[in-house]
């Protein structure tokens, strides 16, 4: 049965960062610099918010049931990004995306495979609970944006040229979004590969015929998914390519 599409997560799959915290921290620093020296009260609010984000990260380490992502976004939206000019955010993201440190975090084993299959007219896309503009700019800086037919991730809402909040629609709802994507692009789930790295991807593993665990996924999760979903967990780029060749017949 010929392969029709490959859909990948972003954090922990195409980029090694397991969450959006690095880009959000970078944006917060640039927002703080923008506020100097005329908005000391807003600047103090951002400093306190960054301290709160660090505390949330420590809480995540102590309690596995702690919903770090939702708490992080609530704090970030309320105390950092709301009211920031979009020009400041775009400038910050563009600089972040082009940085060599960020580009080195990308998994070119996965990106090169996706480019190859996209060039062979397979549908390739990203489904992520991350920040869509950040993902778009990082891929563009690396020269891979045109290798994706679709990029569905959460958006930054703006009003009158200023940011209001980052959406968090996809987190916890990936299976439903993937089903809609496949329907929209007329893709058969039985001819689809989905690559992911966390529990949030498991609903997608259940939906497609060919679940694949990313290289960055923790070993415990890799074993869990190979057992529960018969997912493929490659250890090298060559193993991933061989697997795709076998199912693309």
Give an account of the 3D structure.
- It is built from 11 helices and 7 strands.
- With 249 residues, it is of the alpha/beta class.
- It has 2 domains: 156 residues, Rossmann fold (3-Layer(aba) Sandwich), CATH 3.40.50.1000; 81 residues.
- The strands form 2 sheets. A 5-stranded parallel sheet has the order 3-2-1-6-7, sandwiched between helices.
- The model has no long low-confidence stretch (mean pLDDT 92).
Could you give a quick summary of the protein structure above?
The chain is α/β, with parallel strands linked by helices and 249 residues long. It is 52% helix and 14% strand. It folds into 2 domains: 156 residues, HAD superfamily/HAD-like (Rossmann fold, 3-Layer(aba) Sandwich); 81 residues.
